[in-house]
Design a protein that fits this description.
Layout lengths: L1 H19 L2 H15 L18 H17 L15 H19 L5 E3 L2 E3 L4 H24 L3 H28 L3 H6 L10 E2 L2 E2 L8 H21 L5 H17 L3 H16 L2 H16 L1 H6 L5 H11 L1 H22 L28 H30 L7 H16 L8 H18 L76
Helix pairs in contact: 1-2, 1-3, 2-3, 2-5, 2-6, 3-5, 4-5, 4-15, 5-17, 6-8, 6-9, 8-9, 8-10, 8-16, 10-16, 11-15, 11-16, 13-14, 14-15, 15-16, 15-17, 16-17
Amino acid sequence: MTAWAALIIWPIVSFVFYNKLTAPVALCATIVGGYLLLPTRFGLDLPILPPLDKRTIPTIVAFIFTAVAIRKDAGNIQVLPGWIPRDPVVLGLLMLLVVGTLGSVFTNREALVFGPRVLQGHSLYDAGSMLLEIGMVIAPLFLARRLLSFPDGQRILLTAIVVSAVAYSFLALYEIRMSPQLNMMIYGFFPHQFAQHMRGGGFRPVVFFGHGLGLSLFLTFATLAAAGLFRSAKEGDRMKWGLAMAWLFAVMVLSKSLGALMIAVVLLPCLLFLKTRMQLLVATCIAGMVLTYPALRAADQVPVDRIMAFAEQINPNRAASFMTRLENEELLLERAREKPVFGWGGWGRQRIFDEFGNNLSVTDGSWVIELGAGGWFRYIGLFGLLCWPVIGLFLGPREKIDPICAALALLLCAKLVDLIPNSGIPPISWLMVGALIGRLEMKRGAVTGQQIVEKPVVEPGYARKPGSADEGRPATDLRYARDFSQKKDEAERPTGRKAEPKARRSIFYKRPKTSPGYRR
């Protein structure tokens, strides 16, 4: 009952966010807050439509309220034009994702029989359902591209991750001490196997995640985000971000996740000590390796023996688990080679079954799941969307990249590395992808300055410079900067006239028709 109440109440909570906060802050609060607080593996499964759960409900609500915010308060919001990305590579990857999904459906119409187990074939019904599901998964990308592409928006995203993680860390510490019981206490069920969360004589926290590994990776995200904010902050603000970084790193270590710890140990020094150009180089190398990992794995170019020896030195039990994953990857790769273009489709058809219908495979890594289910078309489409923004920013014009953008690229790479052994792409990752795609479009000139809403050139209600081309026009009519590199015209404020009062931040506020600068 509590789980249903949380899902029903969240649109109301999101309405309050958009009514009281600026649109970028409200977007981050809606998506990140819903992902952290709503019950996992619980929702309403409707025909054709994707399930209404902690992923889809915040996304749908954010789309509605963001569209209202852009329309009602466009003059005060920095926003990129249109909902569809303008970068041609991104458009091509989206097309590959659609074609790969449809191809998986139309090439897997037949049923598969393994003894008593029958896996049904796909139909046109499945094509629409799968496209809607994929669209809902990547939907935060389009929202973030519009609102979080600017430096201020990206800083808001990093700040939201750090602040929410600091608050969440106290719940994690409770479960580290008392065992992971919060989901059971509040929502009435435990989302995974309890035995997997007993580690080193203690417990691995879960809180409201589907698995403790997801929480550990989120703490890694937050630690890296705090490092990025620490690196770019002014002298007076550095102390608080440094303390947040140290605190989150300590909680992450206590969460007992070796993979998350190794990611943080590798990427944290990059954020603290390397220049932004070198940070982008590291991020590009990681993205390139992840994108080509299936080909490298199939060609035996991944040093699995060295990784195994390293894991045995740390913990023999972890090494045994790693070996099991490698064996399953080999079996699933052999299965994927039978249908390399469009894969085997859904319903677990890419798995290995014996003659009695027993499942012999364990699917952990997202890369092998996507490759087996959708083939190379779907894999390149999905992982290309995740990797291209990082690679494109590095290969683009050699202009200075601000530290916030570089930090966001390394945060995304942390998730890319995690997708090799684990599965699941959270909405937070798609927010990062969208924010970087928008920055890539501005850097490459895919959108023009006339289409990007900037801050008003002068305060509302004041006339332009005498003799200029815009003399006599209301200041609120000229809301677009001609070019990022051009300086804005300086306004001369007439004496004896008071400025218009600052408008409320609410997106539902309508400017009175009698106020200065009202456009009929």
